[in-house]
Amino acid sequence: MNIEYKLADVTESFVSLFEANRNILLAENNEHLNSIRREAVTSLAKLKIPGKKSENYKYTAIGDLLFEEMNHVFSPKKIEFNIEDIFSCDIPEIDTQAILVLNGFFLNQGEEITKLENGVIIGSLRAAMKSYPDLVYKHFAQYSDYKNDPIAALNTAFAQDGVFLYVPKNVKHEKSIQIIHLLLSEEDQMVQHRNLFILEEGAEANVVICDHSLSIQKFITNSVTEVFADKNSNFNITRVQNEHDKSVQITNSFIQQEQDSTVTSNTISLHGGVIRNNIKVNLNGENCENNSLGLFLADKEQHIDNSIYINHLKPNCTSNQLYKGILDENARGAFAGRIHVWPDAQKTMAYQKNNNILLSDDAKMNSKPQLEIYADDVKCSHGATVGQLDEEALFYMRSRGINERESRLLLMYAFAHEVISEIKLPALRERIDELVEKRLRGELSRCNNCKMNCR
Amino acid sequence: MLKINNLKVNINDKQILKGINLEVKAGEVHAIMGPNGSGKSTLASALAGREYVSVTDGSIEYLGKDLLDMNPEVRALEGIFLGFQYPVEIPGVSMVNFMRTAINEQRKYKNLEALSAAEFLKLMHEKKSVVGIDSNLTKRSVNEGFSGGEKKKNEIFQMALLEPRLAILDETDSGLDIDALRIVANGVNLLKSPETASIIITHYQRLLDYIVPDFVHVLYKGRIVKSGGKELALELEEKGYEWITEEITAE
Prior knowledge:
The complex is a heterodimer of chains A (455) and B (251).
Chain A: H1 3-20, H2 22-25, H3 31-47, H4 62-66, E1 71-72, H5 83-86, E2 96-102, E3 105-106, E4 113-115, E5 121-124, H6 125-131, H7 133-139, H8 150-158, E6 163-167, E7 176-183, E8 189-199, E9 204-213, E10 219-229, E11 234-242, E12 248-257, E13 262-271, E14 274-283, E15 289-298, E16 303-312, E17 318-327, E18 332-341, E19 349-358, E20 364-373, E21 379-387, H9 391-398, H10 404-420, H11 426-440
Parallel strand pairs in A: 1-8, 2-7, 6-8, 7-9, 8-10, 9-11, 10-12, 11-13, 12-14, 13-15, 14-16, 15-17, 16-18, 17-19, 18-20, 19-21
Antiparallel strand pairs in A: 2-3, 4-5, 5-6
Chain B: E1 2-11, E2 14-24, E3 29-33, H1 40-48, E4 53-62, E5 65-66, H2 72-77, E6 80-83, E7 90-94, H3 95-109, H4 117-131, H5 135-139, E8 141-142, H6 148-162, E9 166-170, H7 178-191, E10 197-201, E11 215-220, E12 223-228, H8 230-239, H9 242-250
């Protein structure tokens, strides 16, 4: 089959899908949103879903992945279940405010959108569009770059709901907010949802996102999260990905940072069929700090691709990228880290590190640093390694009576810990520490009564 | 305790040990000396079970069992300890976690209950004072950023914790100042009992000022060419290795 033909086809199928469901997708009687959707679908048709020749998706054939007959659900479907029966969160002990999102739709457990005493607004994005339109549209689709990014355009055209968070000026929201994205369906399904997090000047918040699949059907998720961090704000976002082997997950995070703001994201990929995480950061004011960290653990036929783009637009900003991966069996991994320093962005400090361990001869990792620097007074560094476990260290441990398996685990765990240690909340850090250890020991398969039996 | 019989060892198809015979009884301290490249470290590696060392002939009997049949970890659990010439840095693995795992593996092997974190810390505290290791070192990752002397002290500290039956110290004294040397010697002397034995591999005599060996063996070109009492070490210090190598060549 001609590849170009096939590509045109996958893009076209989404455009037709949009046309066929126009009445539902444009039904909200919301001209602002509807015009964005129409623009998005036009831009999708123009840009096209990237194929194998796309440099950006070189290692993840996204066109092929999306070229599949899937069900799309454009309004929340009632699924009768008792959440406690099928799902117990792996991070239960930390004091969080939990929000459930089922197949991309905010799961109504009372108010769809709540304004807390401290002024924080939290709830369904769809509801926020109705209740707080000015707040939403000041930022919605402003950072996701749907005019140049076909995957963001795809989401913008179709996504109906997700989570909205607003933290007002100088409010430090103590309690972590946990968003649990659940996938549960009786048929294969494509899910597109959208989160919008707004932190006003001096605001602080912590968000934990957990991605889970609860039934064995094939799921393709394409999610977009937009973050606006205004001056002097501080935001931590931790994502734990734990879906089954048949899932395809594309996450797109667009982070806009203003002067003196700090944003730290930790992406912990524990399990999944195909995972592609895109993070794009705009450092749009002086003295910003961005930390983008990730840990990915993959085996069997799993595929994990992280793509980071840090845009240094203004002077005196610091960015750190640290991604570490452990790949076993036939797993495939990829990392692309791009640092773009604009001519104005003097005194930029931008660091990037990607270290990987391959446990088998068949596992494969591609690492691609990309530095584009147009300012002359900057400090930038990058380093990528792909290696095996240190045989000398293994022997050293065995010579102390620790068996080979345990020695390997200790080394892998030590390797992973560098990323985990950067998670800011102690309770969350400890829980993730445990999860990673369980995952490395191969004890995570019993998660959530999942029937997949991934391992 | 240990009987090495006609041991021949290759590394990368090159014969390094050409028929070693050595018997170590409980309660004894043996020193193995010799010029560089004579095979001293290879012997230590063969005893500890390194994979790149291939035994082509001979046997090693340890406490009546075939040592060559055991994995490195089983050898350790059976009471063999190797003090490394170049201890490995293991970033991210804390000393506490490492040693607690090792101790508990040993206890499991002996059908003893695992030590709790508190019990282990108490034990570690005791042993720390024995060796005189800095408290901060045990809080760090294994050997990471340790100086040469600290790494060697850490070997002795691990030995003190694991209480082996047979300790093999591979040039633990190299590169140490006098204070560190005393600590190493002290660790070995404390371990000494009628049930334990030590093999001290060293290039120089000076460690033997602090650890008095019962036997001294000279290893040269893969063979033990001379054995004697502690006075042999002094003779080597005085005359160097040439007189022995000349003796051999003359024969």
